Amino acid sequence: MTTIRQRRVGKGTEAAEDQPSEETNVKPDGKIPSDPAGGKVWNILSITFGGIVAISLGLLTSVYVATLHENDLWFSNIKEVEREISFRTECGLYYSYYKQMIQAASIQQGLHGLVYDNKTESVRTINILERMNVYQEVFLSILYRILPIQQYLEPVYFYIYTLFGLQAVYVIALYVTSWLLSGTWLSGLLAACWYITNRVDTTRVEFTIPLRENWALPFFAVQIAAITYLLRTHLQPVQERLTLTAVFIATFLFSLTWQFNQFMMLIQALALFILDCLDMLPTAKVTWLYVIQISGLLLVCVLQFFNSMILGSLLISFNVSVLIARTIQKNLKKGGLLNRLGKLILHLLLVLCLTLLINKFIKKILNLESDEHIFKFLKAKFGFGATRDFDANLYLCEEAFGLLPLNTFSRLSSTLLFYAYGFVLFLLTVAAVIVAFRNLSGSNEVQLKEKMEEYTVTLKPDAAYSLVHTVLFGCLALSTMRMKYLWTSHMCVFASFGLCSTEVWKLLLKCLHLYTSQRTQVIKYSVPIITLLYISFKFWPGIMDELSELREFYDPDTVELMNWIKSNTPNTAVFAGSMQLLAGVKLCTGRTLTNHPHYEDKNLRERTKQIYQIYAKRSPGDVYGILRSFGTDYVILEDSICYERRHSRGCRLRDLLDVANGHIMDGLGENEPDLKPSLYPRFCEEIKKNLPSYTMHFTRVFQNKTFHVYKLGKHK
Fold first, then answer.
1. What are the tens digits of pLDDT across the range 606-651?
2. How far apart are CA 17 and CA 43, in angstroms?
3. What does 437-456 look like in DSSP terms, one character per residue?
4. SS3 helix, strand, coil % of the chain, rounded to 5?
5. Per the count of CB atoms within 10 A, which of 198, 270, 358, 554 is most buried?
6. Which of 92, 78, 37 is nearest to 589 (CA)?
7. Domain over 556-712 is classified CATH 2.30.30
8. How many CA atoms lie within 13 A of 275 on its CB side?
9. Which residues cross the membrane (predicted)?
10. Are β-strands 707-712 and 698-703 bridged in parallel, bridged antiparallel, or unpaired?
11. Which of 621, 713, 614 is CA-nearest to residue 661?
């Protein structure tokens, strides 16, 4: 087991930068302010200073997470094998392809090795560039090879510093989004500070560096910032084209770097669909965003050698269905309230039916089953029937795929983030309901525009998008803890924008009959400043203590295992074991694997279930036959899995295997009535007794406190 142990000794005001509004640009008598030159200078100074603050905070965040990583592992002092072991589970698998490209004789040979890979899955040749999102590793390895930095920077540091550098991009994008929404860079400052002080819930980059989301989320944040700017009114054609280009590039990079991109963008497409139906966004811009999503995903599909999982994604089916349905129902936004509600219900049903039909048709044509485990998991998670499916239960039993823990809200509340978020969410939701009802009720658009000044409740398109975005991703985070990072980062943006927004405070003060322009401006700046002071005084000492705490990586058992494999097994040896451990075996030793953690392939899932019979109640002959069918030379057994206590009964890996095999689970507790006792004891326990029925197939060649390695006999 890996542990982290203590390191041994010796080893000004900003009113002019608000978004243009009637109050800031027009005097009460209707005349334009008399000093436009002074206002422009002040705006330039404010934007320059705000930009400097954004870049500074981004760079500070990068240094902060890099320092935490170094202090946690003493990364600069540990051996290379220990550095590689620190890249756990799928992180190690992804990094292994970067290492493979670096060590290849040439870039061409490195690419050929990825396209025709026969070491990731034994007795199979797979295309890594098709199956996995590793273009970032390819690009980074090529960049490292062609830049004159090899003498000054090790490959691993070039890799991790790039990821930490992307955190700067992430924070700057969050800062800019909040600034665009509120009109003041003070909002961006507050968003960035909340992101840093809530680091436990906003990012995990410092201990899961190569994880796909750490590559993708900065580009997603850039995309959201670009969409926020795009949804502003009165953009010049050139500005609109440039912004659409930025949205496309960010969407493409986000899609290229994460296999779950289609599900995140589907939620984004749902937000656009809802707002378009409620007439809260310009239809032309929404259409462009649908097209950008489709084109970005299709371009990634081409780069991934026409990956069928992308073609069969719900996102493409949904976006195409919306565009078709809109063509069929041309008068969707005309008529009275009841008329429009009826049309919307028909529109919703039409889009839903078209989406399901198109998706079913594509999957039938492509014979696509790569993502079926996700839908099985969702079906079981939301109570649409219990399942004995091994893959679905494997996800259900992982804490990361469970509900968001309640202590998350107490942590977010300690920084005042959750309180501010709830306050802004409530006010803007009320405003959105009023605006949506007004839009659906209005039959004459011209009359609506003429009467707009009479309404005290308005909601800008960018704020409306941000509201629905945060609600939908909030629902995702509440249902699946692993996805909370998509929500909490935007929560920082949304809460800071609300506290610095003229519209939010104006709405509240008018409801309380306390509104004046001066009072709104005072509150708009004083509340975020007080919040920033509170955060600084409360959390600055803790951050300093965190940065001064020194620990080191310590996992001698795994280090011993990897060194033994490199020294005592041939380079062509095939290893079987748990997905998580085998990713490290490939990275540290370069040996061939039977299975690995990248689970988005049906054949691999079936293969993994078969390999995991080493922890089930199966006969030695059965297990030997299964392992040999995958060309296995060595099998690694882990005591932490065989005698697992981390999960409760029913969620231990051995329990999942027993239920899937129709066997009664170990230990006290209930079993389903049709489960039966196994005819054989548990393989991982019984093999250690060195009985003849086991030693005729398996010979123990290595063991320590954690791992047991057995070599398979070559007899038929």
1. 999 999 999 999 999 999 999 999 999 999 999 999 998 888 888 8
2. 6
3. HHHHH-S-HHHHHHHGGG-S
4. 65, 5, 30
5. 198
6. 92
7. no
8. 31
9. 41-66, 179-197, 217-235, 242-260, 266-284, 296-324, 344-362, 416-437, 463-481
10. antiparallel
11. 614
Residue environment code for 102-131, b if the CB has 16+ CB neighbours within 10 A, otherwise e: bebeeeeebbebbeebebbbbeeebebbbb
Q: What percent of the chain has pLDDT over 90?
A: 78
Position 24 pLDDT exceeds 50: no
The letter for the amino acid at 192 is A
Give this prediction's pTM: 0.91
User: Would you list the domain boundaries of the chain?
Assistant: 163-547, 556-712
pLDDT tens per residue, range 479-520: 999 999 999 999 999 999 999 999 999 999 988 989 899 999
Q: Are 197 and 415 in contact (CB under 8 A)?
A: yes
**Other beta carbons less than 10 A from residue 216's beta carbon:** 24
Residues 41 and 32: their CA atoms lie apart, in Å, by 17
Give the Cα separation of 264 and 186 in Å (integer): 29
**Burial call 274-297: b when 16+ CB within 10 Å, e when fewer:** bbbbbbbbeeebbbbbbebbbebb
Return the structure tokens found at 216.
């993708």
Query: What are the Cα distances from residue 615, in Å, to 277, 396, 566, 606, 644?
Result: 52, 19, 25, 15, 11
At 573-607, the pLDDT tens digits run 999 999 999 999 999 999 999 999 998 888 999 99
* 330 has a pLDDT exceeding 90: no
> 406 by DSSP, 3-state: which?
coil
Rounded CA separation 551/73 (Å): 6
Q: Tokens 């399901």, residue?
A: 356
**Which pLDDT tens digit goes with each residue over 398-428?**
888 889 999 999 999 999 999 999 999 999 9
Cα separation, 112 vs 110, whole angstroms = 5
Beta-carbon contacts of residue 444 (< 8 Å; ≥ 6 apart) = none
